[in-house]
What we know:
Shape: globular
Order of helices and strands: EHEHHEHHEHEHEEH
Strand order of the largest sheet: 3-2-1-4-5
Helix content: 40-55%
Largest sheet: 5 strands, parallel
Strand content: 5-15%
Number of domains: 1
CATH architecture: 3-Layer(aba) Sandwich
Oligomer: single chain
CATH superfamily: HUPs
Number of helices: 8
Number of strands: 7
CATH class: Alpha Beta
Radius of gyration: 17 Å
Amino acid sequence: xTTTSALVLFSxxxxxxxxxxxxxxxxxxxxxxxxxYRQRHxxxxxxxxxxxxxxxxxxxxxxxxxxxDHLLDLGVLGEVSDxxxxxxxxxxxxxxGLPSTFVPGRNLVFLTFAGAVAYRRGLNALxxxxxxxxxxxxxxxRRATMDAVQKSLSLGMDRDMPVETPLMYLDKAQTWSxxxxxxxxxxxDLIVEETHTCYLGDRTQRxxxxxxxxxxxxxxxxxxxxxxxxxxx
Length: 233
């Protein structure tokens, strides 16, 4: 089967926004899917709607390819997750050694539901912003995990279901660079203004790299990547 269409896991954050642009530059038809799992930074769900509208306005050649958006209620994931992303907890490290922001099974659940939607919609591939280069420690962001999920989905649905991860081996500076390569300054500006990464959901403080508290691990990673990219640009 020729891979001509894709479903992008689009959270409203920087990485998934870059993945969406990447998919639009490669596939003939692209749809998006997001998940409400009662995340602490649920403001990202508002950002994703604004980003999609402005992406269509700014890049009309991509708008012609960009189809339906899907938002699934996965509140049950938040109910079974006792983490700093789903509870008012201090961000640090758990006894397991993993960051307290790790939501067990999150990407496995996301990809399973995304696979089901892709099957129903006749979409050929899944695209996600998982990355094992920058520090996170999340085991469900590793390429080995993606390969296993890809095999399971393909077997379970009796059709090829590639899981594409264009950012897997890029650091945040390279991700910013890829944004510019894909859509120039217009895409970089759109990502700065309309995406959300901050774990605390802070949209009150504006930095050169976007909005956020400026101190949580997600903000720190985004800020350092932006500074490194601008320094090399």
